[in-house]
Amino acid sequence: MDVVTRADEDLLLDLLNTTPVVAGSQVDELLGPDAGRWAADHGGTGAPAEVTALREARDAMQAVVSGEAQASSLAPLLAQVAVRPRWQDGALTWEVSSGDGSTLAARALLAWAAVTERSPERLRPCANPECCRFLLDRSNANAARWCSMALCGNRAKARRHYRRSRSDTE
Q: Which residues pair with 125 in a beta bridge?
């Protein structure tokens, strides 16, 4: 039974990364007028209750992935979640629902559970201490360190190069 899809894993990573550092300050993409649009763009309704559930799930999962909280702290978020089999176009699919309007958050939580069970240690914070993003390492070597080479990887490489070039001239 595979309830979680690649799209759900992408949703999980997108949700975890809704608190990036921009111009030196952390911002929350799930606050303000665009929060509902973020949810709608990811398959949700964009309703205020859904956005609240997404923020709560995101904050709890960020704490768990960062090692600041135990995985058991996520259990209350799944109290209303149901997974039901459904026939669609001649194939068995699985439908995730939640009685309290937090279906999108539930999909992300189920994706977290599947990823951590199937591929432990693949979901982790970016190695850049100034970054608040997360990565899901899908490489065979499990050696990715940065949320993005463009964002953090190149900066780290540039800093190392600068330090080496400075020490060579001294």
A: 134
